[in-house]
Design goal:
By secondary structure, the protein is mostly beta strands. The protein has a domain of about 100 residues: Deoxyuridine 5'-Triphosphate Nucleotidohydrolase, Chain A (Distorted Sandwich). The chain is about 5% helix and about 35% strand. The longest helix is centred in the middle third of the chain and has 7 residues.
């Protein structure tokens, strides 16, 4: 898929880090480092603007290395960039650790995954089909 992109950052376009990776690593585009204190969140710019085809979304997902090593996640994970959005991609990072974390310019802060999606139309009904799970909720699967 060819994806139109405007790169106003000082960095290369997001890249796949391995041959079969699903996500493209995206970098922070900062004029100065951003310090995230414990439980603090910040909207980090990337300098990227994209044109996503209708029927697709771009998901913004955490990087596992930042999560494991530093407790850095994304507040609205995964974030969704819709096909009609034309603004800058920004990443809403959160520090879930007990130590300050400094985001540096050019640091890989998230992954971008492009995914197809469906558009639904509601069909109001009075009953739903039966399943073995039924209405059992959170934590109910695997229970005897």
């Amino acid at each position: 898929m060819l994806l139109p992109v405007i790169n106003q950052s000082r960095h290369a376009l997001p890249e796949y880090q391995t041959a079969h990776a699903a996500g493209l690593d995206v970098r922070a585009n900062l004029t100065e480092p951003v310090t995230l204190k414990p439980l603090q969140r910040a909207l980090v710019p990337t300098g990227l603007f994209v044109e996503i085809p209708v029927g697709y979304e771009m998901q913004v997902r955490p990087r596992s290395g930042l999560a494991y090593k530093h407790g850095i996640g994304i507040v609205n994970s995964p974030g969704t960039i819709d096909a009609d959005y034309r603004g800058e991609i920004k990443v809403l990072l959160v520090n879930l650790s007990d130590q300050d974390f400094v985001v540096q310019d050019g640091e890989r802060i998230a992954q971008l995954v492009v995914a197809r999606h469906e558009t639904v139309q509601w069909q109001p009904v009075s009953t739903l089909s039966e399943t073995s799970r039924g209405a059992s909720g959170y934590g109910s699967t695997g229970q005897q």
